[in-house]
Design a protein that fits this description.
This protein is α/β, with parallel strands linked by helices and 456 residues long. The chain contains 15 helices and 20 strands. Strand 16, helix 14 and strand 17 form a beta-alpha-beta unit.
Amino acid sequence: MAIESVNPATGERLLSFDALTESELEAKLVQAAEAFASYRHTSYAERADWLRRAADLLDEEAEELGRLATLEMGKTLASAVGEVRKSAKGCRWYADHAEEMLADEHWPVEGARVLTRYEPLGPVLAVMPWNFPYWQVFRFAAPALMAGNVGLLKHASNVPQCALKIEDVLRRAGFPAGAFQTLLIPSSAVEGLVEDERVRAVTLTGSEPAGRRVAATAGGAIKPSVLELGGADVFIVMPSADVEEAAKQAVASRMLNNGQSCVNAKRFVLHESIADEFLRHMVERMEGLKIGDPMAEDTDLGPMSSADAVETLDQQVRDTVAAGARLLTGGRPLDREGCFYPPTVLADIPDGSPGHHEEFFGPVALVWRVGSADEAVRVANDSPFGLGGSAWTTDEAEQEKFIAEVDTGMMYLNKFTESTPEVPFGGTRNSGYGRELAAFGPRSFVNPKTVWVQGK
């Protein structure tokens, strides 16, 4: 089976790669296991030096690497270069902080020395998505490598060149052979890898169905897993907010990465007293965005990742409108070369429609009106997802209410949700389990071994 790199802005096939054969995949698993046997004994200082060198290479080659991401998955070049630099920042942050996070933790027991030691598990399989082809990988790889694990990357099949570049950067940075390997394999090979005894844990960022399959397989093999799945993040706006500024930030969040991010703001819950003003600003900003070549400096919105993605999103929009939603702008695929869908706003989302219960992975805003903070909480929680969310209010009682009652893994006040190495990231319910980043990153895939030494 060929793994193809296709430019979604033009439909041009860039490169084709043969998937690994069974014998080639076996050789990489052997290499990972052998590499771990020695790599686990390297020092934090050695790992940190390699990771800092990787960060340097990412910064030095940010334009080249960013251009590759834009070609393979369509994000604007400016955002792609920014993503590479963010990955460099993540590498440096873990090089600076992971040793402290993984230090022995001592417990007060009279007459004994008792501690927890965090030991690496072994080869960790990372099943990663195309939408942030560098950052998604490095936010796993940097802490996992600092913890003494080795990595096996099964990247999304539409970004094979980015996947190979990541391995190349880490290898040139000085990490030993086998410490991080890219596996060009189809999704059908993932289950067998999770079951393989040499793979000791798995992390997946992707769709809910993929997460369920991986979680079931990992559970059957009694292996730890971390899942970061879909999101339908809420964006609540109350009367005390600066409505024009909130609308500006709403459009920025919704259009981030061409509307294709798990933590894009997707469901906009507006207090009825400010809803008309907010929507006026939102629609005006949406219609003012420049759609086009993602390589161009003045492009605001590039293509979606594939023709299939456009078709899926368009069907969701049409079905939601047919169920009774109001279309305020957009709503049809653009009649041009490439996989382009316009900024779209749907208001008054009916219960039971796709907009009510499905994730819209593209540049579409879904809008509800509410009369109170209590109703805003109800709408926010009326979703199978619970990744992140934000609320825009200066009322302290409302802020505390949204923090306490909105059922998400992350809740931001007067700022839209993002991922950054210093802050834990993850969700609840159908958005997955476990946490990435901050101290959770290096501790996700370790054995917290209790050590008891009797006597002083």
